[in-house]
Structure formats: C-alpha cells, structure tokens
Specification:
alpha+beta, Nucleotidyltransferase, domain 5, six-stranded mixed β-sheet, five-stranded mixed β-sheet, 19 helices, 24 strands, 21% strand
C-alpha cells in the first residue's frame, strides 16, 4: 500500500499527516508554532524563528513516520500552510532574518505608502490582492528600509512553505497560489508582474520562480531524511496555500460549491474559471488567486476568526478553567455549554470580531473589536455566545457579499477546519445562513482537510492520481449535515442588519484610538 504525506504550517500548530490513497489518516504528529518577540524596544513585533518552523515540522514528520510499518511506502510529500510570511536566505540556503509574522504591525508605514503611491485599485486589477498590512511585498519594503545589508546578501525571499521545500530537497521555487499572496503576481499571465516590480522597486532576483501546484520539485535529501525520517529520494511536490489545499478533498474544484475554511482565519471561497479582477470585486474586499487545481482560479473573502475564541478562552475563561479542573473536564467544553445555554441573540449583546482589524467585506486594519448592547442582564454565557455569534455574523457577511454583490453561485456550502469539531459553533453557522446555499451546511468527515489537500497534490505530482478530480474521487467522504433551527434563523435574520451597523458606528472611535497608539490591531 502506498502512502502520501502532507505538512501543514499553521499559525498555532505544525502538523505532519500521512494518508493512504483513500485519504485515511495512517499516522500524524504535531508541534506548536511558537511566536517570538525578540526586540525589547518593540515588544509588539512578532516573528517565527526559521529553526523552530523547520525543526518542529521535521520532528512532527519524524514522529509520524516512526509509526509506519515501512517508511518506504511514503511515495510523495507536499507542504501547505499560511501565506505571506517569508524569510530571506543566502545562496547557500542559510536564513538571514526571521520570518516576520502576519501578527506583526511593523509594516504599517509601508502599507500607507503602497496605498498612496500604488493604490489598492491597481494592486487588485493586476494581482487580485486585497491590501493587508502583512502582505509580502510590504515586508520586502520594510527590509529595504531597515535592514538593507540583509537584503543585499539575500539570494531569495522564500515564503514559509517554500522554505520548508528548500529544507526538504534543496530547491528554491514557489507555486502560483503562494505567489498570489505577494502583491507582485500577475494573475492573468501567471507570472511575476513587471509593472508591480517597477512601481514598488522590488528586485525580481529576490523572487523564486513560480510553478503550478502539484509540480514535482525534487527529492528528500540525506540531511532532510535524517531530520524527518522520510526515505532519501522521496518525491517533494509543490503544495499550495492552506485553504486552497483544503478545497481539494471536499470537491471545491467547480463553480457552485462554496467552501468555508474555519480556523484561525475564516476563509469563504469559491472556484471560478477566470480571475474576477473587476473594480466592484475590489471594493468588496475579496481576494482573487490561482487555485491549486490547475486551470482554475478562486475568489475568497477572509477575516481572522478562531483566534478571537482563543482570546475569549484566555481572558474570559478563568471560572471555566477552575470548574473544569474541579470536575476533571476541559475548560473549552464549559465555555461552549455556557454559550449554548444563552438564548440566540445573547440578550442583545453583540461582539465585533476585529481584534486583528476588519477583513472582508470592509477591510480596515485600524478597526478594533468591541462588545456592544451590554446591560445589567448580560451574563457570562451571553458574552461567550456573543463572541461565537460575532464570528458567524462576520461569516454571513462574507457569504452575502460574494453571492449578492459578485454573483458567485452557492449551491452547496461546505465547512472544513479545526472549528468543525465544535458542534455548537457549526449549528450556529447553520442557523445564521438560514435559507442560503441549500439551507444547510455540510461538514465532510475528512480528517485534516488542509494537509490532505497537500498530500493529494503530492499524489498528483508523483503520478498516483491522474488529476484533481481523480484524487477527489479517491478520498471522497460522507458529510454531517447541519440544518438551521427555524426559530434561531428568524432571530438572526432580524439581528444581522443591526450587526452590519456596528462597525461603521465604531469606526471613528477605533481610528482615533489606533492613531493615539492606545490600541493596535
């Protein structure tokens, strides 16, 4: 029996998962992704250390491989994960500066410069990108201003997946989906944009050559074999951006199927046959990228999501931790039970989920989070429920924007990601969407969809699947269906227009606090 491996570089976890050709998990392991704040003068600056990223991913893979009866059954490996975060390496592949994390606020001046001189409109018209403070090109501009000697010694700026590929097989390359994250990629021509490079002043030599996802890249080297346990010579295949890899095992490879990747980020995406690079699309805050499935594009809207539930757990969960410790349970279960016990609408409490700024459909990095509608009747359970509901209002806002403003068909709504393990959250999503997209949401019984998508690409590159459709037919799984509760659906239909007023109402306050430096999304 042949196996395929996927490595998933997430913001909280580094995962290595090995599958059989039917998409069943054979072995897996993980390590934490560790944020670092190495500059005492700038404690808010956040980086990932390359040694920890490679070391953690390699250790996870070695642990997973050790559980196999024969490691030689692994016929290919591909890497997926977060986009935009990159690292400068010299000609020998040695890193020269840590990955600047997407959490890091240091590139706000470069964001402001780009917005004024290149503009969001031109950026979208060429590359399909919504401007984010952490976009790759802005890191390069920051390096040019603050670390010019490092940039002078840089042979290539490798995105985080590309760095792992280099460590696995020695090749320096990228794929179309990762290149799509940079602000520097021409979506129509699927190559680096001469115009964006000229306008930004970024040197083309710093950028790795782009290829389609599923392209064979090289073979596991002896050094990588010792670190990972993978046999020397195992094919290394280009993977892709995490949520796009997650689209493969659930069949989001044709128009009409809408995918919600629900995790640290919430990404709502659909496949399209052509890149939708219109001014109207740009105004909605969506992003257009090449798909990991060849000859397709995607359009997606995204915003930070479960990161805010982790904040809720950390800051509002003291009593839940105490009760869980006393009863031998898990604090998360206590919090969700409280939220579920509160009524739909949380007694009027609402949460604006902008702790890391606002995403689609009204991108605003200076927007701040907040609770509104509180009264002396508001309970702890109401607050927790309001956080879940705020995330789902945000989700519904993205879906409505893609359907209503851009005409994206929504015949089926499929949800994958870590949040699918939270039954209450999934039911609340279904209650929110109400009659949209067939009136329900589907949660396929897929184990670890994102690394599975990477493993499928490894299988395509290694010749074990003919193409994306063949790979999907091999791994296809049944789904759990969540039907909306009609009473809750009516409540949310009444409250959703009110939620949409919260962000505009708080905009001036958020911007003023951000400008004074008393708050930093």
């Amino acid at each position: 029996m042949s196996y395929l491996a996927g490595i998933d570089l997430g913001s909280t976890t580094l995962k290595a998962v090995i599958y059989d050709l039917a998409g069943n998990v054979v072995a897996s392991a993980s390590r934490p992704t560790e944020q670092c704040h190495p500059d005492a003068a700038h404690p808010e600056w956040t980086v990932w250390m390359p040694g920890q990223i490679w070391g953690g991913a390699a250790a996870a893979m070695k642990e997973a491989v050790a559980r196999l009866d024969d490691p030689r059954r692994v016929k290919g490996v591909a890497v997926t994960g977060m986009g935009m975060d990159g690292v400068p390496v010299d000609e020998h592949g040695q890193w020269l500066y840590p990955f600047i994390s997407w959490h890091c606020p240091r590139t706000q001046p470069q964001f402001d410069w780009w917005s004024q001189h290149i503009t969001a409109e031109k950026t979208f018209a060429i590359g399909g990108n919504t401007l984010w403070r952490f976009s790759t090109a802005l890191r390069l501009l920051w390096m040019a201003e603050h670390e010019p000697e490092v940039l002078r010694r840089t042979a290539k700026w490798l995105l985080i997946e590309d760095y792992l590929n280099m460590m696995l097989c020695g090749a320096m390359a990228t794929d179309y989906t990762m290149a799509s994250c940079t602000l520097l990629f021409d979506q129509r021509r699927l190559r680096w944009s001469d115009e964006m490079l000229r306008l930004s002043g970024i040197d083309r030599r710093l950028l790795a050559d782009p290829y389609p996802s599923g392209t064979p890249l090289g073979e596991v080297t002896p050094a990588a074999a010792r670190a990972t346990g993978l046999p020397v010579g195992t094919p290394v295949v280009l993977g892709g951006h995490d949520y796009l890899c997650g689209a493969l095992p659930v069949g989001v490879i044709r128009p009409g199927v809408v995918l919600d990747v629900s995790g640290t980020w919430e990404i709502v995406l659909a496949a399209t046959e052509e890149p939708l690079l219109t001014p109207e699309a740009q105004r909605t805050g969506v992003t257009v990228e090449a798909h990991v499935a060849r000859n397709l594009y995607t359009i997606w809207g995204g915003a930070v999501s479960s990161d805010m539930l982790e904040w809720c757990r950390r800051e509002l969960g003291f009593e839940a931790r105490y009760r869980a410790k006393q009863r031998g349970g898990v604090d998360w279960d206590v919090l969700m039970a409280e939220a579920e016990a509160a009524p739909a609408g949380a007694h009027g409490a609402m949460f604006l989920p902008h702790l890391s700024g606002a995403g689609c459909p009204a991108v605003d990095p200076r927007s701040l989070g907040g609770f509104v509608g509180l009264s002396n009747l508001t309970s702890h359970g109401d607050l927790v429920r309001a956080v879940v509901e705020g995330l789902d209002y945000q989700f519904l806002d993205i879906v409505q924007t893609m359907r209503g403003s851009l005409g994206v068909p929504c015949e089926r709504l499929v949800v994958v990601g870590g949040a699918t393990k939270n039954r209450f959250w999934m039911q609340n999503k279904a209650d929110m969407v109400g009659g949209l997209c067939g009136g329900c949401i589907e949660v396929p019984q897929v184990e670890e969809a994102t690394p599975l998508g990477a493993a499928m690409l490894a299988g395509i590159g290694a010749g074990l699947y003919r193409d994306e459709q063949d790979a999907f037919e091999h791994v296809r799984k049944p789904a759990t269906i969540y039907e909306p509760d009609p009473v809750a659906a009516r409540t949310y239909a009444e409250l959703f227009p009110i939620y949409r007023q919260v962000c505009p109402a708080l905009k001036a306050v958020s911007h003023a606090l951000s400008a004074l430096g008393h708050a930093a999304p």
